[in-house]
Design goal:
The chain is an alpha+beta fold. 30% of the residues lie in helices and 24% in strands. This is FAD dependent oxidoreductase.
């Protein structure tokens, strides 16, 4: 059956219930080498009856929220973290290991949508986030995370895209001359000569980082559990299956929410959804405003003719999505890679998929075509011929949370989403594949909001999950139209 006549439609796919995380996901190399962290499956002998805060999700967002709540008080605060699978087994533990913000490359489009000041506020948030993660890694997991400060070489596959990116950087530097000097333009010849990449229109070089996010986050959990044994409980393999509420007038109104799990019910004063692509399972009204998008990651060995730049360089390649109408599959437009500084193997990710394969929350499998595409692309990027096949070391899939307007959802959830009174349910989700540039500071912001602090000076208001935004820039029709660019032959509805 051709994509044009197949079901489900794009609307069906992005509004489907993502369900709970799959119980038997593919295994990321970050976890398999050298093996899961000793605390990966930690849980209490008995689920706590009450908590001041329940955080659902143990990736970088949930970790950061717990970190900032506990670090900054109050000292008697009790926090429980629920994770459906092992700790950090979702997007954070499955990504490409990049600590990067594209910054000024995005400035012109953000300025057009948001205005100059708010566009800068968004970019500055990401700059501060990258710095904060680098600081936390070096403070808490300097050896475990394998962190390197390096250069990102952001390549563009076509002249038009490269010219647009350069114009955006130049506009950013005109508007904010104090930021000049962050970015260097590279010709195709320079990219090939100095960084090994063939067949691109040019690149922009800027400072970034690379690491194992899984090892970093697990070290933070190790630190928090040791430092706050009376304040923190972390419950792996304990999915939140439902959230309910007692009446405000109830004698137990302090703990007004009930978080239901297979191990029992926790009464809590605050619920925080750090659930990214899976948020729609617990909050059905979020479906179509955040949806899952699956990509494939690999570890590959290349010819020993390729030098090891793992200490100095990471790369990405950007172009418009390329759709194959015969197969119904799309090259989704972004490839990202870094090298293992120990052995030179490449961590290389992207997507080649049809709509059903991409718009899914299932990370328990992958497609042979998706992996074959990444093997072919890696060889071609470094100018190798078809006889120089890569050595496949590892392959896995991961689920990103996408939104129609490209921005995350954060802050207190309105009644229209939760259908519950009280106003103590919070969200931080929907990072569109760019969570490493957002999540740590997002966690700090959510922790501050929960304590009643004013974060408006540094937190971009465009991130708030307002009713107005849900009905306009995050409307389901807007999301369907955006996905249509990846899969033009698929029916919208």
């Amino acid at each position: 059956m051709s994509p044009r006549n197949s079901t489900p439609t794009l609307r069906d796919l992005i509004t489907a219930d993502p369900g709970l995380p799959y119980p038997n996901p593919t295994t990321p190399y970050w976890i398999s080498d050298p093996g899961p962290h000793p605390l990966a499956n930690t849980s209490s002998p008995q689920l706590p009856e009450t908590a001041d805060v329940v955080i659902i999700g143990s990736g970088i967002t949930g970790t950061s929220i717990a970190f900032h709540l506990l670090q900054e008080g109050p000292p008697d605060l009790r926090v429980t973290v629920l994770e459906a699978r092992s700790l950090c087994s979702g997007a954070t533990g499955r990504n490409g290991g990049h600590l990067v913000t594209y910054g000024a490359v995005l400035y012109s489009s953000l300025k057009q949508m948001l205005g100059r000041e708010l566009a800068y506020k968004v970019l500055n948030f990401t700059f501060q986030n990258v710095d904060a993660v680098a600081d936390a890694v070096q403070r808490y997991a300097p050896q475990e995370a394998g962190y390197r400060a390096l250069d990102r070489v952001m390549c563009h596959g076509d002249e038009e895209g490269f010219a647009e990116a350069k114009r955006s950087v130049e506009e950013f530097e005109r508007d904010y001359p104090e930021q000049a000097g962050r970015y260097t333009f590279l010709s195709p010849e320079k990219v090939k000569e100095s960084y090994g990449i063939h067949g691109v229109a040019g690149a922009i070089k800027f400072a970034a980082g690379a690491l194992s996010p899984y090892r970093f986050i697990m070290k933070i959990w190790e630190t928090l559990l040791a430092r706050y044994p009376d304040n923190l409980t972390v419950e792996a393999h304990t999915p939140a299956t439902n959230v309910t509420q007692v009446p405000i007038c109830s004698p137990d109104h302090k703990y007004r929410y009930r978080v239901h799990t297979p191990r029992g019910v926790i009464r809590t004063a605050n619920v925080i959804y750090a659930t990214n692509a899976y948020t729609g399972h617990l909050l059905p009204t979020i479906r179509g405003h955040i949806w899952p998008f699956r990509e494939t990651m690999t570890v590959q060995g290349l010819s020993n003719k390729i030098p090891n730049r793992g200490v100095t360089t990471s790369w990405s390649v950007h172009q418009d999505p390329v759709y194959n109408s015969t197969s119904g599959k799309s090259e989704t437009g972004t490839l990202y890679l870094q090298q293992n500084p120990r052995n030179g193997d490449f961590y290389f990710g992207g997507a080649y998929a049809n709509a059903e394969e991409a718009l899914t929350s299932d990370d328990s499998g992958m497609t042979a075509q998706g992996t074959a595409y990444l093997r072919k692309e890696l060889s071609q990027l470094f100018g190798l011929n078809q006889h120089d096949k890569t050595r496949l070391v590892s392959e896995w899939t991961g689920i990103q949370g996408f939104t129609a307007d490209g921005a995350p959802l954060a802050g207190p959830l309105p009644f229209s989403v939760t259908r519950r009174e009280g106003g103590r349910e919070w969200i931080a989700a929907g990072y569109n594949g760019g969570g490493m540039a957002l999540c740590w500071r997002m966690g700090k912001a959510i922790a501050g909001m929960l304590r009643g602090e004013d974060v408006s000076e540094w937190f971009p208001e465009v991130f708030y999950a307002t009713e107005e935004r849900l009905e306009s820039t995050l409307a389901v029709d807007v999301g369907v139209a955006g996905i249509k660019e990846y899969f033009p032959d698929y029916r919208e509805q």
